[in-house]
Design brief:
Layout: H1 10-19, H2 22-30, H3 37-44, E1 45-49, H4 55-66, E2 77-79, E3 94-98, E4 111-114, E5 121-124, E6 131-135
Parallel strand pairs: 1-6
Antiparallel strand pairs: 2-3, 3-4, 4-5, 5-6
Helix pairs in contact: 1-2
Amino acid sequence: MKIPPRFISVAALAAALFVGGPATVAAQAAAPAPVSATVLSAASVGDICYSALPSQAHDTLDLIAQGGPYPYEQDGTVFQNREGVLPQQSTGYYHEYTVITPGSDDRGARRIVTGEANQEDYYTADHYASFDLVDHSC
């Protein structure tokens, strides 16, 4: 989300810089309020239809439903949400799982992160920079 810049007149700016009078208060009042990380986080989570996920994500979701076994030792570990993109929850609420990337020599960047709520599955293709909540109904 981009916040549009706020403009003040040249006269108000000059008054604030040189005089420091009432224009200073007006200029401060015109400044945008800081946007909290929580607001930005909510905007960072999109939606994706289950049918639009790559087939490897379907495989990962199937493994999660079966309780494993998982291809990587890190699968099923607690996801800390250090990036703050997902809604804030207590530690242990989220768990992460690898979505295999064909041709990759390592785990790649794709993951499914699950929350405790029913069908609260998030997909990321860019190693936690953004997430999409999986819509299992489409």
